Amino acid sequence: MPTTPILITPDALEMHHISAGDTVRLGVLAGPEVSPVTVILESWDVGGAQPPNSHPASTELFVFLRGHGVAVCDGTEVAVAAGGTLVLPPTSLHHITNTGPGRLYALTLMSPDDGFAAMVRRGPLAGTDDEDRAVLAAVPSTVPSTRPSTVPSTAP
Fold it and tell me: What's the predicted TM-score (pTM) here?
């Protein structure tokens, strides 16, 4: 692993499908060659879903950035939306469907990688557009300020 900082910018993003005809695009932002946690931008087309899948040794975490959908994990269905975080344990059988009128976006963190980044990169290129880059560029502005003047008081 590198010993100096690495900056990946939105312009460097390459989105892939895992298989031709998929309705979910994935772009590796950081893989196992640079980090013990793989970070991926995922984008679901309107009505898009990935097939049910499982990761035998990996925890998968989704931080939803835009849109809304439904996640099913081992038969349990939960609504997901921008601002929410979904944690899926190893061995769970899961899939996410975009139920909104626009794309659904999430940052996905996988640990250990267990070949996930390589599988994404082997898939066919799926195109990257201005909306994809704008979602990434907007992420820092969605983090609330931690300045004392903006933190609500917890005093009784």
Answer: 0.86
Give the count of beta carbons closer than 10 Å to the beta carbon of residue 98: 23
What class, spelled out in words, does domain 32-139 have in CATH?
A: mainly beta
Q: What confidence tens digit (pLDDT) does each residue in 15-57 have? A: 999 999 999 999 999 999 999 999 999 999 999 999 999 999 9
Q: What is the CA 10 to chain-centroid distance, rounded? A: 14
Q: How far apart are CA 115 and CA 123, in angstroms?
A: 13
What are the sequence ranges of the domains in the chain? 32-139
Q: Are strands 38-44 and 94-98 parallel, antiparallel or unpaired?
A: unpaired
- Give me 147's structure tokens: 């300045």
* CA 60/CA 88 separation, integer angstroms: 5
Query: Hey, which residues does 28 pair with through a beta bridge?
Result: 40
